[in-house]
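Notebook entry, structure prediction.
Reason for the run: the old model in the group folder had no record of what sequence produced it. Starting over properly, with the input documented here first.
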Amino acid sequence: MVFMKKGEGNLKLLKKFCFVLLIFMLPCTVYAANTYEIRVTIGENSYILDGKTHSMDAAAYISPTSNSTMVPVRFVANAFGLGNDQIIWNDISKTTTIDAPDKVIEFTLNSSTMKVNGSPVKMLSPDGKEVKAEIKTVNGSGRMYLPFRVLGEGLGVSVDWDSQTRTAIYKKTDSANEQSTLTPTRAPTSAPAQPAAPTLSNNEAALPDQFIFIYKGARIVMNEDTTQLFADIGQPDKTFESPSCAFDGVDKILYYNGFNITTYPDKDRDRIKSITLTDQSVQTPEGTKLGMRFNDMVNVYGDTYGNTLDLYFYVIGDIKLSLLFEDGILVDISYYYLPVTNLEQ
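New structure, fully documented this time:
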């Protein structure tokens, strides 16, 4: 979700997670229809709008505390034609506001109360438990989540749940001569470019290999052609593909044992965009792995990090190394190729 303070032109990133495909997905144009449907499936990094699949870098999930289906707010709002300039983040109050044409919806981080046109609405699970707005960090940026039923009701659309496919369904039907204010008639407004991430100064020389990931002795270099990657470490266990909204072709996730690689299309080839470590069976060349503590990171990389909440990052040249902590434990390690990352923002 792209967050920005009202009245300012600069973005402020919140946090980071897993990807899928773009750090900030450039939205595709969709057109009005009298009846349209949006489907978001648990665990899938895409949503379906009127039968057409659109990639997103944040997947819906089931909240373990309330058993509610949580969906990424920005992508659902974008699917209904709301631009990033209509999704406003207040960093002081930790509140996100959806500025729709006929209503204003506000929800605050870790709060179970949502406001629609100023009126409070309690967010409850189907079994009556309170559900709080949550932020999860994916690919270096924060994604705000809400229970899908509450978000649908706030947007004024009907909601349904397909238990067999574990899919949240939003459906809006307009009258023949009256178009809904939420009908997706335009592409969401592109967000302003993000300010450059802070660069390191006094410990650059101490960081080995410019953040090159090494697996079974092979150096995996950002932006290299995957032809070389496959020659070095073999084919992935599985591959996920989705049409790219930023480039001609498809974005891909390559799943290997212990890590994932995302790629972007470059003419007739695919190039490496990011690497995410997924379990403790692999580690960085410096010995950093999931499960370590904050002090371990500082001992390895120094204290010249940038951070947004519990996401810490180091930048050397075109590479960013991001490390996400939860309750002081390292839960995500990712490398990013910044020229493409910044372009996609």
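Summary: The helical segments are 73-79, 148-155, 226-233, 294-301, 338-344.
The old model has been moved to the deprecated folder.
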